[in-house]
Amino acid sequence: MAKHTIVLIPGDGIGPEVTVATRRVLEASGLSVEWVEAVAGATAVEQGHDNVLPEPTLQAIKAHGIALKGPVTTPVGTGFKSVNVQLRKHFNLYAAVRPVRSLEGVKTRFENVDLVIVRENTEGLYSGIEAEVVPGVVTSMKVASEAACLRIARYAFRYATRRHRKKITVFHKANIMKMTDGLFLKCSRQIYEEEYPNIEYDEVIIDAGCMKLVQDPSRIDVLLMENLYGDVVSDLCAGLVGGLGVVPGSNIGDHCAIFEAVHGSAPDIAGKNVANPLALIMSGVMMLNHIHEEAMAERIKRAYNQVLMEGKVRTRDLGGTAGTDQFADALIAAMK
Ligand code: NAD
Asked: Average pLDDT in the 203-221 region?
């Protein structure tokens, strides 16, 4: 069996707890792995690095091309730039892919949610270009480039084709942001018309789209959108299927990929062993598929489906009392 080398960034807040749980579950699935631990964010500074994204961390990701990452806190307002945004830009991880699915055994308002968010990950309002025009007036620049818009649209259509998905819906606000969102739409439409006319295609203004999502999410298949919309809509969709504890994610580029949950560092529950590790475990499953360890991915998937269906062991966010470790133990037991 091939031995994989994977960079592991525990992050902070609930990050270390959920990464330990995920690591244990991945290893129990049979994964032969050498973990290369790396630090980022406040943890890096605490450990004496002069940067929140130290050079050894960047070098490790570059060398091995694959990382599993816990969440990293970003100070609000002032302080260092988001480690997450920096990483995505540095490695050109232009596609954030976030599958959102109803889970049997997790009761929510809807039962048949099975959608995927494809979020442009490198530009939009995350360009970080902000300025004070005159005292009391500040601006933030929304950037859209034709190259990045075409690249993410092509990625979404290719993804939909490979995964046998039927339809791509673009959420936009091109009625107001005529140039930036207008370009995003134009590029999406172009890829649809010229390269993937076999996939259904639709464009919806994002505010109306959000209403449709919460009325009947089962009608949505693949959602394509720019950076900030993708961020906001991801959490909205998480709420449709049981919350942030059950939604995984990946950040994909042409040369490397970083797998991480949609949720953040959850400082309100950090260090209490109550966080749900499932979102990161599911991100690990996406990683296993990415490195062609499909049998292991399937084993873990079956285990969490079984444990959730039985309903005896679940974390607090899903109405249970199990701790982070206990939930991982239950998955490991279910794989035996
Ligand atoms: P959050 O996702 O950390 O938490 C939102 C709510 O969901 C909280 O009530 C939290 O307790 C709950 N929650 C999140 N994950 C959970 C889990 N696995 N199990 C159970 N409950 C869970 O969002 P926030 O509070 O807005 O952000 C906290 C910090 O995380 C911020 O600094 C933010 O910038 C950062 N963040 C990082 C990432 C990342 O590293 N990729 C993503 C989002 C937010």
From this structure: 97
Point out the catalytic residue in the list 181, 231, 317, 329: 231
Backbone angles phi, psi at 66, to 5 degrees: -150, 135
Please work out whether the CB of residue 194 comes within 6 Å of at least one atom of ligand 1. Answer: no
DSSP per residue, 55-112: HHHHHHHHHH-EEEE------SSSSSPPHHHHHHHHTT--EEEEEEE--TT---S-S-
125-164 pLDDT tens trace: 998 899 999 999 999 999 999 999 999 999 999 999 999 9
Sign of the four-CA dihedral 318, 324, 328, 330: negative
In the prediction, which pLDDT does 174 show? 98
Q: Atom 36 of ligand 1 has which residue's CA nearest to it? A: 264
126 is catalytic: yes
- The active-site residue, picked from 94, 126, 155, 304, is 126
260 lines ligand 1 (CB under 6 A): yes
